Amino acid sequence: MTTLGIIGAGHIGSQVARVAIANGYDVVIANSRGPETLADLVAELGPKARAATAQEAAAAADVAVVTVPLRAIDDLPAEQLAGKIVLDTNNYYFERDGHIEALDKGETTTSELVQRALPDSKIAKAFNHIFASEITSDGTPAGTPDRRALATAGDDAEAVAFVTRFYDEAGFDTVNVGPLSDSWRVERDRPAYVVRQNAEELTANLAIANRLP
């Protein structure tokens, strides 16, 4: 079974861990405070989960999820994540991360910055435009009328295919935005951000997004 290495055990990371466990994945999860601080979460997740350092989670991962503040991406274990699919959940919150001129000017995207920090990894956007609590509450079986859709973006077809499959397992349809350079369409303050939408509605919201909201 696939091992999901989750780097960042906050709201999104812990919810993705719950979805992964529910679908039979093994989970190795890390945070910035040390594995011992994750004892309660791992106990809840059960025997298919364990806590580790970020380096250990990256090394153990078949697929990784990076869900850390944007300001921390340069500290990610790039060597251990080389060659692996990495799901990027990042959003740019200048109030938290400080201003990043290239993002303020619309010259790059958060996922492109993650790709720069992890040059040998296969990056795909995932789970950045849904409230964390809804990751485990809004999923429905494939074929459900008006099923909620989530977007992904990526330059690597294998990474995008994994997100599409994982979204479906979690209970969501997928809309592919395109390359990482277009992932701004689903970032903070755009029409597709943290609203419930089916695939048709999400596609429409992506189309009307402005590069600088």
UniProtKB/TrEMBL annotation:
Keywords: Oxidoreductase. GO terms for molecular function: oxidoreductase activity. This is NADP oxidoreductase. The keyword Oxidoreductase applies. Residues 4-92 form the Pyrroline-5-carboxylate reductase catalytic N-terminal domain. The keyword Coiled coil does not apply. It holds the Pfam family F420_oxidored. Gene3D superfamilies: NAD(P)-binding Rossmann-like Domain. It comes from the Bacteria. It comes from Microbacterium maritypicum. PANTHER family: DUDULIN-RELATED, REDUCTASE. InterPro entries: NAD(P)-bd_dom_sf, P5C_Rdtase_cat_N, STEAP_metalloreductase.
